[in-house]
Amino acid sequence: MTLPPARTRPAPRPTLLLTGGAGVLGQALIDELADDHDLVCLRRRNPVCDPRVREINGDLLAPGMGLAPAVREELVARLDGVLHCAAESDWRMSPGEIRRTNVSGTRRVLDLAVCAGAPVYYVSTAHAAGELHPRDRELFPGAAAYLESKRAAERAVREAAVPGVVLRPSVLLGDSRTGRSAGTGGIAAVLGALALGRIPVLPGDPDAPVDLVPQDHVARAAAALIRGGVTTGEFWLTAGPQAPTVREAVEACLDFAADRGLVRPSAPRPVSVGAAHRMLLLPSTSRARLHHRTEMFLAFGRELPFASSLGLAPCGPALGREEVRAALVRTLTTWTESRSRLLAARRAPEPAQAPDPAQAPVPAPVRPSAAVGQPAG
Q1: Cα-atom radius of gyration of the chain, to the nearest Å?
Q2: Which of 137, 237, 247, 326 suits a disulfide with 169, CB 3.0-4.6 Å?
Q3: 56 three-state secondary structure
Q4: H or E element at residue 252
Q5: What are phi and psi of 15, to 5 degrees?
């Protein structure tokens, strides 16, 4: 008598702690990993609100990450890896707050990973590789603190007692297929301002590359590294040699406006970095807006072009220049969907048309009054 084949149990799903699940990259990472991982998301303020993940309350800056003892004990027993995306990226915060969140918070995450014996995948930024000009550090303390904090967190990951992978994405666009992004500010707001003609000048060289990468490409590469068991190394998740120039990105925004029936703005006037610095010293009601946009271009415009790990075996497919442009346009599309009033004000007027005589209304015949022709009095 032949025995029936033994039933095989499905392999247990790896458990991964994800910080920053409600952030710009978090949703894309959940989409990539939820099918074959048990995802545990740390929540402090913003809930993830995704049925595919388990949320736990915590705080990166609190002792023990603010976890209840039973929850921390369970994580230590179950964790197979930590994907650390949470960071303070609002440059309007004080430099001290930025450093505390990005450096001290990373150290708390590493402490938990060491207790669990789990590798850490740390999401840094490609721009951490560059140094700001001394004048830029003075004018943009938030950006300077952000980049310095990312470098310090990378060092902490390399020096930790567990294996660590440093992921270095560049500026994140929305999803390459839908344009969706968890945030409405950042690069999407800058691209939208270009499309609406609200950026009259741009600092720097218009022919310099601007490295933009769709968030789903970054998430796909990170997931490939995790699934592949890669636990050490640095990976550049960037457009690299496929990055468009500033001029090409601007033209895409202006074309976007014209294609949607808006008034096509004039291209921003390029100015030198020194001229941009001088403009920021002038009193102006729009100085805060100019400061933010100049900060974006100067902080993210150095040390380019980057290398790219996309297209190499551990990270999945390469990113093409046309894919970057298409993702830029889709990001703009989703950014404008909730701004119909703003766009209506920029709508190009319909061309005037001569009236069609055949469509002119025919006047009604005049009927004579009964009093007409009668003598007076």
Answers
A1: 28
A2: 237
A3: strand
A4: helix 246-259
A5: -100, 130
Q: Which residue has the tokens 């303020």?
A: 45
Secondary structure element (H or E) that encloses residue 84, with its range: strand 81-84
What's the rounded Cα separation, in Å, for the pair 239 and 218?
10
CA–CA gap between residue 172 and residue 328 (Å, rounded): 10
* Per-residue model confidence as pLDDT tens digits over 251-261: 999 999 999 99
Asked, as a colleague might, if the bond just before 305 is cis with ω within 30 of 0, I would say: yes
Alpha helices in 117-185 (DSSP H): 134-139, 141-159
Summarised one tens digit per residue, pLDDT across range 158-173 is 999 999 999 999 999 9
Please list the helix, strand and coil fractions of the chain in percent, rounded to the nearest 5, in that order: 45, 15, 45
Residue 69, preceding bond cis, omega within 30 degrees? no
For CA atoms 98, 103, 105, 109, give the dihedral sign.
positive
The DSSP line for 195-232 is: HTT---EEES-TTSB--EEEHHHHHHHHHHHHHTT--S
Contact 26, 16 (CB under 8 A): no
- In three-state secondary structure terms, 154 is helix
pTM above 0.90, yes or no: no
Strand bridging mode 164-169 / 212-214: unpaired
pLDDT at 264 over 90: yes
Tokens of 292: 């933010």
Give 57's DSSP letter: E
Structure tokens at 143: 């950006």
- 3-class DSSP state for residue 132? coil
Neighbouring C-alpha atoms within 13 Å toward the C-beta of 97: 8
| Residue of 276, 318, 309, 305 lying closest to 210 (CA atoms) | 305
Contact 210, 321 (CB under 8 A): no
Side-chain half-sphere CA neighbours of 130 within 13 A: 20
Residues 39, 72: Cα–Cα separation, whole Å: 15
Q: Which helix (H) or strand (E) holds 255?
A: helix 246-259
* Position with higher pLDDT, 295 vs 191: 191
Q: Which residue matches tokens 């009601």?
A: 285
